Amino acid sequence: MTGGNDKSVKALKEVWRRAENSLCADCGKPDPDWASSTLGVFICLSCSGIHRNIPSISKVKSLKMDHWDDAQVQFLAQHGNAVTKATYEAHIPIYYYQPTYNDCQVLREQWIRAKYERKEFTEPGKQLPYSDGVKEGILWKRGRDNGQFLPRKFLLSEREGSLKYFTKQDAKEPKVIIKIDVINATFQPVKIGNPNGLQITYLKDNKTRNIFVYHENGKEVVDWFNAIRSVQFHYLKVAFPIASDNELKSRLTRNFLKEGYMEKTGPKQKEAFKRRWFTLDHRRLMYFKDPLDAFAKGEVFVGSRENGYSVQKGLPSGTQGNFSWRYGLTIVTPDREYLFTCETETDQLDWIAAFTSVINQPMIPQEYAIEAYFKVKS
């Protein structure tokens, strides 16, 4: 906002203060202090960096540090986030994942490019690469035993309600067939060590199995992600015909509530605590020896408070197992207590908050069946 006459500076401030412009147009982060002088949207610093990579579409400037001339201010005033969204977000498919500022770079970049560069959502009924119920292609998949990433053919089919992958390009039979109703997919660039890393999980014999994949092309891997969501959505439309679109949308792919290392002890609570990687996926707490293991070493069902589940700060007095981390927490279930320790107090409080958010939610009918399975198994 440096330079310029007082009138244009005042006008820019007025446009900037509008309620519609109080969040980043692309990721929803509060208090954006950048804007696109060619699109007319107010955006955060992080999204401005993505806009800068598509200069043919968007020219970005700082609202605090850059000079805005009268014509640019007038353009912003005539547009702003609401008007621009009405054009570029007019026809987003209900299943399409709209990332927030908490999401990874590849999701946010492809969302921005889909809107402004490819104009995927400006017209109704547009044929999109993830919308026709079938997708076939190569993804690099991590080997379960050797940890090597090798190219594998994947086939997603709405008609068959499944995702398959093949160990060889010309293989007639798939290595694995995954039913679409038990799949989850979530981006994991840090864990996988690739900016386009995607973790696909599914249930096999009611146990969680992980597949780690990536594609060199960011658009391609995000298209796979949204294709999975599209097929899931249409499957749910048939399975639950009276449910609203928003209800179905909430049952598509989900991010894990929390992941990270904790130490745990065994059921006798006298064994030495061992460090494990934990993933909280709604009511399933899974633990792994390594974050990239294909199968969990164990799973714990986390029910609701009204069904006798709770989380407590600290360990029971007299806990005997040797542990190196000081910040304990205890999950209480109707059958037993699970003891964990965290490396820092921040980790401890974050885990307690995540468990509390799950425990405070009433259980739905399907979750009682999962709870019963866990009880039989134990």
TrEMBL record:
Protein name: Arf-GAP with dual PH domain-containing protein 1
Protein species of origin: Struthio camelus australis
Key words, A-Z: Cytoplasm, GTPase activation, Metal-binding, Repeat, Zinc, Zinc-finger
InterPro entries the UniProt entry points to: Arf-GAP_dual-PH_domain (IPR052589), ARFGAP/RecO (IPR037278), ArfGAP_dom (IPR001164), ArfGAP_dom_sf (IPR038508), PH-like_dom_sf (IPR011993), PH1_ADAP (IPR037849), PH2_ADAP (IPR037851), PH_domain (IPR001849)
Domain spans labelled PH: 132-233, 255-360
GO molecular function: GTPase activator activity; phosphatidylinositol bisphosphate binding; phosphatidylinositol-3,4,5-trisphosphate binding; zinc ion binding
Pfam short name (any one): ArfGap
Cited CDD domains: ArfGap_ADAP, PH1_ADAP, PH2_ADAP
Residue stretches making up the Arf-GAP domain: 6-129
GO cellular component: cytoplasm; plasma membrane
Domain of life: Eukaryota
Location(s) in or outside the cell: Cytoplasm
